[in-house]
Structure formats: C-alpha cells, structure tokens
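Hi P.,

Sorry for the delay on this. The queue was packed all week, but I finally got your sequence through. Input first:
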Amino acid sequence: MLVDSHCHLDFPDFAGKIDQLIDSMSKNDVSHALCAGVTMERFPALLALVEAHPNLYCAVGVHPDTDDEEAAEPDVATLVRLAEHPKVVAIGETGLDYYRLQGDLEWQRERFRTHIRAAHQAKKPLIIHTRAAADDTLRLMREESADKVGGVMHCFTESWEIAEQAITLGFYISFSGIVTFKNAKTIKEVAQRVPLDRLLIETDAPYLAPVPHRGQLNEPAYVLHVAEEIARLRGLSVEEVATASTRNFFHLFRAATIS
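Then the structure:
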C-alpha cells in the first residue's frame, strides 16, 4: 500500500477527472492522498473535495510565494478554526520561497511564523515548502519551536546537511518525482541516507511527474515510480519502501485513518 503525501487535486488541471484519478490510485495500490492548501480562497472547494472522498485528506495554509495583494492573508485564529475539521490533518503548505520573489520578503517570514504558531495551537503537524531559503527556513523553525509540532519538509531538494538538521528538529523528509530525474544527484544521495522511519513519498501533482511520465500531467498513482526509484537507490524492495513510507504517513498525520 502506497500513500501520496502531497498533491493538489483541487487544481483546475484535474477538473472533471477526480473519479478517474481515484480509480487510477486504486489500480496502483495507492490508498490515500493528502491535498495541501495554497490559498484561503481555494480552501472551501478543497475541503469539499476531500469530504466527498474517504481516502483523501487536506491541509490548510497559504503557499509562501502567494503574493497577490487581493489574496486573504491567514491569521492564527482562522487557521486553527479551519484545522478543527476532521479531514484537515495538517497546517500548510507553508514555508519560505526566495526563488521567484525578490526584495523585502519579511512578509513571507511573518506568514511562516503565523502558520507555525497555528500548528502549535491546533496541535497538528506542518507541511513545509522551502526553496532557495533553507537557512532562513531552519532558523524560523527553531525560533518558533517547530520541533514541538513536527511535520514534513515536502518535495525536498536540498542537501543532506539541510535534511539532517530538519530531521534533528523532528521532521520527515518527503521525496517527489524529482528523485527519478537523471541529473538529481544531490536528491538521490539524500534519498539513500534518510532513515527509513523519517521518509515520505509524494507526487506534488499536477507538477513534477516522475520518469517515465516526465513532462506529463502528474497524478497520485505515479507515486509508485517514486517508491521504485528510492527502492533502487537503497537496495530495498518496493514493498519495503511502501510499508515504511505509509507507516510514517499515518504516524505523522495522526488525524488520518486507514480505511
């Protein structure tokens, strides 16, 4: 049994295709998927989607590179209130992304702090996105005691040194289809070294489809290929990677249940 620990099935790419995606998951032994929130405006539709499917869960949060002035900025109280729903198993995705944005990004750091504080109050783990901002991400995690709630570094693309620091803070490391890319040497190395009890797998669908589907629309069923590559890198069976990553998912996201 496999689990896609991070995807975006509420995105327009999948309009009218949800039943097909669920069927494809079943055929590839992918039992559950977690859909991460990206804006407050999209959250009601996301929640309705996961309410309609027993094997889907979601997280509530605002993506770090959402800088639309008209978009609602989350506050702690709102995030905590929305996280009370039984299908909301985490706060996020949140974090820092300096790759696309320039200038004074203090607003992004304050948003990240807001999410960490909400996770403390909601007593639910964090889903953290970090890109070109690893040092600040870890610094804020320490300053806000993110280790008290834990969570996952999603779609991990950093070095083993960064992974090790996140693991020390009690976080899991999640690998996407990028680990199957031929030139992803750093990520492949990290995938070999992360303790099995700290490893998660994901698609980040509709993005980052793994080989042999690279360049196509990604979907949760393709998380199988992520598991296959990690198994190859570590000299394990796919079943061993599936068992470990699925066990880790339900341990971290305790509000999710096996059904």
